[in-house]
Structures are given as C-alpha cells and as structure tokens.
C-alpha cells in the first residue's frame, strides 16, 4: 500500500503588533461617534443649519436686531448715568471730608477745654494747699516735676503671639509672654513703696487716683491706651530707689517674669528725668470731724468727711 504524502500548510499570517490593543485602535480609527457623524452629515445636507425659509430668516434677523437694540440701549443708559454717579461720588467724598474736619475741630476743642480745666484745678489745688501747696501739688501730680531717678523699660517677650494655654492665660491675655495690667500695677506699687516721689508710664503721670486696667490686649492708664515697650520713669534717689526696688517682692516678681516667660526689662539710674503734670485732676478737700462733740461725753470718734470740687 502506497503511503500518502503529508499535507503541507502555508501557516497563518503573523499577528499585528497592535492586536492586543484593540480598544485603543478602535478609539483612534473612530474618533467621532457614529451618532455625531450622522448628525453632522444630516446638517450639511440640510444647508449647514441655516434657515432656508423666508419666515425663519426674518425671525433670525428680528432676533439679531432686538439683541443689538438691547445692547445699544444699555450702553446709552450707562453713558448717561456715568456723570450722575461720578457727581454723587464727589458729593459723598466732600461730605466725608467736611465731617472729618468737623470731628477734628471738636477734638481740638475738647483738648483745649481739658487743658483749661486742668490748669484751673491745679491753680485751685495750689491755693487750697496753704503753706504746703508746693508739696501738695507735687504729690497730687498737679505740676511738672524733674530730678534724679530711675528708668525702667518693660517689654513683651520676643516672638510673642496669641497661642495661649499657659499658666498666665486669661480672657484678656492669652499669651504668657505679654505684659499684663497686673504686672504694671505691681511694678508701679513697688516703685512707690521703694521711695519714688513721682511716677509716669509712657509719659502718662500717675496720681493717687490713677487706675491701670486692661481692655482686650491693651493696657489702659486712666482710660488711655499704652503700647509696648512700657517706659516707667520715677523721680527719687536713683541708686537707692533702684536697689530697693530690685530687692523688693515686686522687683523679684519682675525678675521671675523675665526668667519664666521671657518678658524683657531693664532698669537704670538717671541723673535727671522729667515727668509731665497729670492731664486731669479731681480736687477734693478733707476736714476732721468729731461725731460726739455735742454730746458732752468728752469722747470724740474721729471721722473724715470728704467734699467735692
């Protein structure tokens, strides 16, 4: 039996290099979707989408004319109203300037009246002081004073922010590195106790009636805000005043603020410091009174009556 020759095949064609990327090839070959292509062809067959009937053309023309009229009218109204707006703006600016000038004039009048009242109060205080009027005026802050003393500068810590969370945190001051009103109170009281004859903070003269308070983050002296650094000038025996203050409890308190919270301070003796008079004074007089003078028992309880200016 004869043997059949084997069947020879030519083999399959080689695969395309991008056969494994059929999805990408399809996207490249058909970049435009079939639906969009059909719509574009239909629009081209109908004349490019433009209206072909006379009615449609008239409607399109009417729309374009209406849009142009609206734009033109708006531009005309804006051009007409521009001078009116500019005039109103100029009038408003003039009113602001006039009101500002009026406020400045009133503030100047207030300062003049305050100065006059202060001069009259100081004159009355000197008159009521009798032979000791000069000493009374000095202690009450009614007159300027100069002489030897000390200069104490207190400032917030470097890089002070509003972080909070420290042992000195409160509703008014959340930063432990800020100088607070009670710090200035202790400093001033320590200077008085150490022998200061007159004290001023940032040019603000202190008297027996002065108050150091806080308003937000600001320190007020007699309701006038101060800004750091706080320069405290005190009249007295410079070397003795400086030594006694630094050795006092308030001086040690200031040193603790510097060590623990970084509050900066420096004290130096001065051959001469000048302090202004207090801006305003309340003149009061006091007389001793014996409540039991008319009872005949010979015993009188001393009491103090306080008059008004």
Query: Main sheet, how many strands, which sense, barrel?
Result: 5 strands, antiparallel
**Count of distinct strands:** 10
Structural class: alpha+beta
* SS strand fraction: 15-25%
How far is it from the N-terminal to the C-terminal residue, by CA? Answer: 153 Å
Total helix count?
Answer: 7
What is the 3D form? Answer: elongated
SSE topology string: HHHHEHEEEEEEHHEEE
Whole-angstrom Rg = 45 Å
Helix content, binned percent? 40-55%
What number is the mean pLDDT? Answer: 76
Task: Point out poorly predicted stretches.
Answer: 162-167, 170-174, 296-309
* Side-by-side strand order of the widest sheet: 3-2-7-1-8
In summary, what is this structure?
By secondary structure, the chain is α+β, with helices and mostly antiparallel strands. It has helices at 22-29, 34-45, 54-128, 133-140, 181-193, 238-247, 249-261; strands spanning 145-155, 198-201, 204-205, 212-215, 218-221, 224-226, 230-235, 264-275, 286-290, 302-306. α3 runs antiparallel to α4 and α6 (238-247) packs across α7 (249-261).
Describe this structure in words.
This protein has 309 residues and is α+β, with helices and mostly antiparallel strands. The chain is 45% helix and 18% strand. The protein contains 7 helices and 10 strands. The strands form 3 sheets. The protein has a 5-stranded antiparallel sheet with strand order 3-2-7-1-8. It has a 3-stranded antiparallel sheet with strand order 4-5-6, with helices on one face. A two-stranded antiparallel ribbon has the order 9-10. β4 and β5 (218-221) form a beta hairpin. α3 packs antiparallel against α4 (133-140) and α6 packs across α7. It is elongated and about 120 Å long.
């Amino acid at each position: 039996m004869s043997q059949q020759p084997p069947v020879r095949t030519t083999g399959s064609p080689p695969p395309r290099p991008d056969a494994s990327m059929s999805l990408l090839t399809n996207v490249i070959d058909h970049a435009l979707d079939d639906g969009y292509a059909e719509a574009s062809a239909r629009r081209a067959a109908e004349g490019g989408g433009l209206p072909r009937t006379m009615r449609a053309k008239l409607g399109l023309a009417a729309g374009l004319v209406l849009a142009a009229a609206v734009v033109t009218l708006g531009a005309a109204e804006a051009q007409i109203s521009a001078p009116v707006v500019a005039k109103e703006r100029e009038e408003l600016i003039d009113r602001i300037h006039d009101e500002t000038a009026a406020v400045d004039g009133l503030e100047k009048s207030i300062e003049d009246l305050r100065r006059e009242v202060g001069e009259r109060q100081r004159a009355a205080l000197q008159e009521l002081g009798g032979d000791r009027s000069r000493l009374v005026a000095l202690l009450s802050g009614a007159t300027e004073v100069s002489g030897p003393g000390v200069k104490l500068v207190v400032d917030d810590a470097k890089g002070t922010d509003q972080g909070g969370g420290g042992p000195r945190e409160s509703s008014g001051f959340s930063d432990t590195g800020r100088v607070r009103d009670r710090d200035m109170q202790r400093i001033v009281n320590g200077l008085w106790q150490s022998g200061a004859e007159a004290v001023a903070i940032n040019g603000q003269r202190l008297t027996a009636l002065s108050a150091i308070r806080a308003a937000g983050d600001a320190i007020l002296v007699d309701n006038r805000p101060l800004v750091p650094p706080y320069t405290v000038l005190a009249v007295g025996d410079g070397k003795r005043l400086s030594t006694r203050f630094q050795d006092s409890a308030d001086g040690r308190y200031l040193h603790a603020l510097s060590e623990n919270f970084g509050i900066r301070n420096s004290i130096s003796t001065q051959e001469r410091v000048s302090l202004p008079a207090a801006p305003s004074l309340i003149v009061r007089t006091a007389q001793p009174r014996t409540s039991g003078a008319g009872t005949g028992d010979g015993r009188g309880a001393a009491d103090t009556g306080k008059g008004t200016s």
